[in-house]
Design goal:
- The chain is mostly beta strands.
- It folds into 5 domains: 64 residues, Roll (Ubiquitin-like (UB roll)); 55 residues; 56 residues, Phosphatidylinositol 3-kinase Catalytic Subunit, Chain A, domain 1 (Ubiquitin-like (UB roll)); 70 residues, Resuscitation-promoting factor rpfb fold (Single Sheet); 127 residues, Beta Barrel (Barwin-like endoglucanases).
- Helices cover 13% and strands 45% of the residues.
- It is built from 6 helices and 26 strands.
- The strands form 6 sheets. It has a 6-stranded mixed β-barrel. A 5-stranded mixed beta sheet has the order 2-1-5-3-4, with no helix packed on it.
- Strand 20 and strand 21 form a beta hairpin.
- The chain is rod-shaped and about 165 Å long.
- About 2% of the residues have low confidence.
Length: 406
């Protein structure tokens, strides 16, 4: 009897151990929840048992873990299988628009599944971490490699921004004030590998004070001795304030523009009295003559047979015989001075009685013709007195002073 009982227990144990172990499976398919008991250990048979049909892009999670459909040898016990059905994702890129079927959890995962290599500076709208719960439209702009040049400095950046200004702001070098760029700030950035040139503009205002030279006004006075001048009002320079705008581009000055000139002080004219009063003065020493004016003149010398005519010439403009005591001046002023007596130190007393070639002296020595005098000598007595001499014009003074002596 004991042997029979032992045999019965052995048979029962053998039968029980050979039976498949059943698992309790909860299947979540959207809003539909289904629970089954299954002895299957492969994923597809379990889903088939539950009557679940999967689309090509659907995704399966077993106990919260993404699981491929060909997964086999699932652990026995309580299982939760979640079906994530694919939805439509409309994707807009610079190359155009396309529609994807995806069961990805987020926008970023969907793009990665579609073969896009996402980088930090790509522009994704909505953002990559946005969960996908329904059909969705996504805009994806991949970042471009762009070079930013500022003078000799160059920076490489990646950006998906829509304008040059946004690219520069992302790079931490926004345009400020009068700064400019090429392409312009509101234009589209260059294509991949292109360059943005930035010009840093700085303007300064320079303020400078400049003098305004005063002018001189000469008035005649009968109370001031002839040949003398008296200042009755001093001249004072005026003052102008000039504002100049200086423009620098990338540290280099490129332009200067005068914005304004303001007269801070008007100049004051210097007023000088020029004397017309004839005052006779002694020549000096033991010379018994008085003069009314003395003038520095450039002297040359001649004699009748050494006058540059190629022969001997004794005639003069006054009719007097050429020789010692007769001096000549330029023909343009002879009519004003003809017959006047002069005294020349080193030469002596003379009368202006002839004309000569003042233009030749003016051309050769740069002496104004009104300041030239030609000293006459007798033949054989010529003395070289070429150079500057003082010519004393002796009394009496003429009724009207020649203009070139004033």
């Amino acid at each position: 009897m004991k042997k029979f009982r032992w045999l019965a227990w052995m048979i029962l144990f053998f039968v029980t151990s050979c039976q498949p172990i059943s698992s309790s499976v909860t299947i979540l398919d959207g809003d539909h929840i289904q629970r089954i008991e299954s002895t299957e250990r492969d994923l597809i048979p379990i889903l088939t048992q539950a009557g679940i049909d999967l689309g090509q892009n659907d995704r399966v999670f077993v106990n919260g873990i993404p699981t491929p459909l060909d997964q086999t040898q699932l652990e026995a016990g309580s299982l939760t299988i979640q079906i994530r059905r694919a939805v439509s994702l409309t994707l807009a890129t610079p190359q155009g628009q396309q529609t994807l079927q995806t069961s990805a959890l987020t926008v970023g995962q969907a793009l990665t599944d579609a073969g896009f290599s996402l980088t930090k500076n790509d522009l994704i709208d909505p953002p990559a971490e946005t969960p996908i719960t329904q059909n969705l439209s996504v805009t994806y702009t991949p970042a471009r490699e762009i070079s930013i040049g500022i003078g000799d400095f160059e920076l490489q950046v990646r950006s998906a921004a829509g304008t040059v200004g946004e690219v520069l702001a992302e790079a931490g070098i926004p345009l400020i004030g009068a700064d400019t760029s090429s392409p312009l700030e509101n234009e589209a950035p260059p294509s991949d590998g292109g360059q943005i040139s930035v010009v840093r503009v700085r303007e300064t205002i320079e303020v400078a004070l400049k003098p305004i030279p005063f002018t001189e006004e000469v008035v005649t006075s009968p109370d001031v001795p002839f040949g003398e001048k008296e200042t009755i009002q001093p001249g004072i320079d005026g003052l102008t304030m000039t504002r100049t705008r200086v423009r620098f581009e990338n540290g280099i000055e490129v332009s200067r523009e005068t914005e304004s000139e303001t007269v801070m002080r008007e100049p004051q004219t210097r007023i000088v009295q020029s004397g017309e009063k004839i005052v006779l003065s002694p020549v000096g020493g033991d010379i018994p003559y008085e003069y009314w004016t003395a003038v520095q003149m450039y002297a040359s010398v001649y004699s009748p047979c050494a006058s540059g005519t190629g022969g001997c010439s004794y005639g003069t403009a006054s009719g007097a015989r050429a020789g010692y005591g007769i001096v000549a001046v330029d023909y343009s002023i002879y009519s004003y001075l003809a017959g006047m007596r002069v005294y020349i130190p080193g030469y002596g007393l003379a009368t202006i009685g002839d004309t000569g070639g003042g233009p030749i002296i003016e051309s050769a020595f740069g002496v104004p013709r009104t300041q030239w005098i030609d000293l006459g000598f007798n033949d054989g007595e010529l003395v070289n007195m070429t150079g500057w001499v003082t010519v004393y014009f002796l009394a009496p003074a003429p009724a009207e002073i020649p203009y070139f002596l004033k």
